[in-house]
Specification:
This protein is α/β, with parallel strands linked by helices. The protein folds into 2 domains: 81 residues, Winged helix-like DNA-binding domain superfamily/Winged helix DNA-binding domain (Arc Repressor Mutant, subunit A, Orthogonal Bundle), CATH 1.10.10.10; 224 residues, D-Maltodextrin-Binding Protein, domain 2 (3-Layer(aba) Sandwich). It has 11 helices and 13 strands. The two termini are 39 Å apart. The C terminus is likely disordered.
């Protein structure tokens, strides 16, 4: 083997992830001895041992960890090439994958993407949206599984690490309560006051609430954890618990069903979102166009009709 090949790198990554050559062989539907031979050739090529054999498997050496990072980047680039070329073959001239938090998806991102797609100049561009929690958005962009990510970065938000970013929109966390709840008459409230009552939470906000409660030396009591804002609002409507969620998500439902939306008087209640990406020069033309559009749209809040070529996947 005179040069690195993607098949060997893919097998090497699989071995490192599973910590077992035989299991990696089962995943790839090839015998473990064939993988061992490829890795031995790879070690000869790079001039360093890449794996340490243990009693019940293997683990990467320091050189192996370095190669693993490069291999993941190379494989992600190869996968992007494959997706982009498949898009051209099917008549789509550009394809952009976006990872975004549930809040961004529920508030304004869909409308902003729709406005982008309704531009005649973008008629041959396809945008795929996938819902992730903020740390997974950052991880996905860092590993090259998508071009753009949108997540919360303010105060209690996620650390973007080495990723580049541009500002997106803001939202405002609030407490939603049934009109018969003891907090219903409040105009604004401190988070500590809510800890006297049971909460309904989503995975997307539970970490924020837990960190805020720990900072106060208090315990947050969950009545139930649900998977969507709509489910949380239904629990509140039944007067089973209160919920912390973006005012921008809750207001229309609250108005319809007579729920109370109470301003949260905390420095972290106003959340700032950012569009994150690895290197702008590595973005496709379609991704750069969408990036510029989303940054511009961050000051516009006019809802528009969803475009038919936006697809959604719940992660």
């Amino acid at each position: 083997m005179r040069e690195l090949d993607l098949t060997t790198l893919r097998l090497f990554v699989s071995v490192c992830e599973l910590r077992n050559i035989a299991h990696a062989g089962e995943r790839a539907h090839i015998v473990g001895s064939a993988i061992s031979k490829r890795i031995a050739q790879l070690e000869q090529l790079v001039g360093s041992a890449l794996l340490v054999r243990k009693r019940h498997g293997v683990e990467p050496t320091p050189a192996g960890e370095t190669l693993l990072e490069h291999a993941r980047s190379m494989l992600a680039s190869a996968d992007r090439i494959k997706r982009d070329m498949a898009g051209y073959a099917s008549g789509v001239k550009g394809q952009v994958r976006v990872l975004a938090t549930a809040s961004a998806m529920a508030e304004s991102l869909a409308d902003d993407v729709t406005a982008f797609l309704q531009n005649p100049a973008h008629r041959n561009i396809r945008v795929d949206l996938e819902e992730r929690i903020s740390p997974e958005v950052v991880r996905g962009i860092s590993q090259g599984s998508a071009s753009l990510g949108i997540c919360w970065v303010d105060v209690l938000g996620v650390d973007l690490g080495t990723l580049h970013s541009r500002p997106y929109r803001c939202d405002h966390l609030a407490i939603v309560a049934h009109p018969d709840h003891p907090l219903a008459g409040e105009k604004s409230i401190r988070f500590e006051q809510t800890l006297e009552y049971e909460h309904v939470s989503l995975p997307v906000t539970s970490a924020v609430q837990q960190r805020a409660a720990v900072a106060l030396g208090r315990t947050l009591v969950y009545r139930v954890i649900v998977s969507s804002f709509q489910a949380a609002l239904r629990v509140v409507r039944a007067n089973l618990a209160i919920s912390l969620m973006p005012r921008e998500v809750a207001q229309s439902y609250a108005d319809m069903h007579g729920l109370c939306v109470i301003a949260l008087d905390e420095p972290w209640a106003e959340r700032r979102f950012a569009i994150c990406f690895r290197e702008e020069e590595t973005l496709s033309t379609a991704a750069r166009l969408l990036l510029d559009h989303l940054e511009m749209q961050s000051s516009i809040a006019e809802p528009t009709r969803m475009a038919s070529n936006v697809t959604y996947h719940h992660g």
